[in-house]
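Re: your question from the hallway

Yes, I did run it. Sequences:
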Amino acid sequence: MTGDKLHVTSFKENFYKATKPLVIALWLALLFIPFKGIRAAFILFLALAISLVILKVGNKLLGTRNRLKDKCLLLVTRYASLITHHSSFITRYLLLPLLFFLPFFASDYFIDVTILAGIYIILALGLNVVVGFTGLLNLGFVAFYAIGAYAYALLNTKCGLGFWSALPFSIGLTTLAGFLLAIPALRLRGDYLAIVTLGFGEIARLVLNNWDSLTKGPNGISGIAPPAIMTVSFGKLSYYYYLVLLIVIMTVFITRRVYSSRIGRAWVAIREDETASSAMGINTTMYKLYAFAFGAFWAGLAGAMFAGKMQFVSPESFTFMESVLILSMVILGGLGSITGVIIGAIILVLLPEVLREVQLYRMLVLGGGLVLLMIFRPQGLFGGKECHS
Amino acid sequence: MFLQQLLNGLTLGSVYALIALGYTMVYGILELINFAHGEIYMVGAYLGIIFLGFFTAIGLTSYSLTLALFLTVLLSIIFCSSYGFTIEKIAYKPLRNAPRLSPLISAIGVSIFLQNYVMLTQGATDKVFPPLFENSAFEFLSVRITSIQLFIILTAGVLMILLRFFVRKTRMGKAMQAVAQDKTMASLVGININTIISITFIIGSGLAAVAGLMVAIYYGLVNYSIGYIAGIKAFTAAVLGGIGSIRGAMFGGIILGLVESLGAGYISSEYKDAYAFIILVIILLVKPEGLFGRGV
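Structure:
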């Protein structure tokens, strides 16, 4: 309203405008008093006030309002599209050779973290099918991960099955669970679906935690055998690394192919406009079911990989926070973008490991980051289109 | 035994109902599942401990316990309401016209932020609420009723009646109903939507603060993770009663409290937390509009 050129700003209005950052800073600082004490609140006030004033002055110097923000976002877009456009080149000539020779020069610790990142990439790609491609928010994705992990753990320790013979059962069971959850849940709208999946995730965790006779409750199951081919065990870190690398490449390949197939296009159509896509003859319920089951499939695979890697599973690894972490990877990278999701997973796994001191603040930053991302760049770092409910 | 469980359930249910009111009001107006609401309740419990500790340190508690308690409650409500107000301004308001999932994800972000913020500043271990008064109990029909239980049920009841009166009879409450029904029309007849939304968050957070304080007194222990579970349970209560309906939130909360308490007493206490989720899933699948339908 105040952008009108004929409008003469009064002294009072100018005063309000000039003091607004200070008032905001003071208000936020006041809120911190009970938890951090007066001194910390004062420091926070100074920091906030200075940064808000700098932001304001910076915007004024650059011209129109929000220029600074737009400039930053433009930069992100430019680099993101640069990476996406050259992603096949980068992967083929830089990333793959690097990853292939990694165990020869990297430390064991780094390989360990990379394996973890690989498992998370599989998970995030699986969730991306549900949330990114089809636009269904699944907050209980970790339940499928847990089912996959526990299925392998139990088949191995109780029935003595090896990794490769247990894997089809473990993945099949998880896919079935995805189907079974999806059949009733898909009748619900966006946010209700999210809550039902969350409830499912919590119920799964509670069952694992309390069914002592089968899952040993909170103590977890230990002594799970790592995968082996013939007599060669993948228990050795570098072997396991190659196994994970292979499976990640396979996951990327398959999800990419499915994405550009008829099914994938149907998913995207449902995400963009469910009514229109059903008018075009897409059986939306069926395709949503496929998305859920296909997503769960990868979670089951990742779960079995996780159990084989850790040789130990407990309900503690499958909390709601884990679901949020995987979801953050998908959202940070960009809903629906495979390159983005991979980078999102790598960032969220590697960053806290590299910056050891901030590990404590990881979830705090993640929470704040989700809010900021939704406000400033809801499509994520690499996403092109926003997701719709 | 049965009556005792019933009473425990009623106490628990009143707390759930108080939190559920915040969910239901926000959903009624913004159609947003305010994920951070459970954390506001947790913050309320912590604020009670912090302020009471402060008043004890400056000697007010030994001078006049009533005054110290009153100030604690008042300050906790004020701060929680401010948190609710600020969260709406920062995390939800910029997303009001965004796709529906964006504010939900933002709300999850706020929830995680608050939870970890409290954990980092207050520690991950349980905090003890100082036992200030003797918890006198009396027997009635072989049921042991403690004064705290009575206090919780009465306070919750009074607050709910006040809220109902506010929404039904006052000008502001009627404006709130109008915004819940149709935002565009409400703004056309001169209602300031932003003010109404802010007030909804302030009232909801204030009620959550009271709930948090009461739980802190009742159990004597507070942990940074209580908000998540309590939030989901209260949300279940809101859905059970019919989200958007204030009467529904009250009854939903009490029904949930009773189911949980009786289930823990007669079926299995290990799965105590699972009952809420099972009810939630069943209700959403069978009767998503809840018991009492829609409308603030």
